[in-house]
UniProtKB/TrEMBL annotation:
<keyword id="KW-0489">Methyltransferase</keyword>
<dbReference type="InterPro" id="IPR029063">
    <property type="entry name" value="SAM-dependent_MTases_sf"/>
</dbReference>
<dbReference type="Pfam" id="PF13489">
    <property type="entry name" value="Methyltransf_23"/>
</dbReference>
<dbReference type="GO" id="GO:0008168">
    <property type="term" value="F:methyltransferase activity"/>
</dbReference>
<protein>
    <submittedName>
        <fullName>Methyltransferase domain-containing protein</fullName>
    </submittedName>
</protein>
<dbReference type="GO" id="GO:0032259">
    <property type="term" value="P:methylation"/>
</dbReference>
<keyword id="KW-0808">Transferase</keyword>
Amino acid sequence: MHTGEQYHTFILSSQRDRVVRDRFQKMALDFLPDGADVLDFGAGTGIDAKAFSARGHRTFVYEPSEAMHEYLAEYCRDEIARKSIVTIPSHLACRVQAVTANFAVLNHFESHTSLFEELSRVVPQGGFVLASMLNPYYLGDARYGWWRANLINLMRRGHYAIASESRIHRFTPRVVARAAAPYFRLERLTPRGFGLATQLYMFLLFRRT
């Protein structure tokens, strides 16, 4: 189990993760209207929240891990004091233009149906949810036995879970899109085509209908 500080140091020192985070932040900021509020769902140690706040977006942060939340409170203490970052006890305790969920937060859910119904009460019509999720088609994982063993599950059901303590789930985009309906529609998937075989993470942008 990582402490918040260990996780923070590790993810900032990983070149691959920095590239993914930069792409995710750019996509979120490109779609956010000027001055719009955002919810960082599963905010970790507050790296994304700090970036959104710096661009003028009041950012609500929900992080259920005590270790992560404690480090977030230290890392973002100035923004919290200015109330440009606001910690909340539940993801339902705010109303925002957008929700972001970076680095596989949604892969910890077995199903997203209830979550999207809840988020429909947080995000108004025209707002969005942007999530980065582990890509089930990533060929870099083909060296692992669990990936090969679950190919049939992926083709048949579009979903499987890895037998581990954290029970990480893999989903095809269509399965997540089906769970999001009728409250959200999948507006953009990145990457597409051959890129799905070469990228560990896929970005899914859901628009509130």
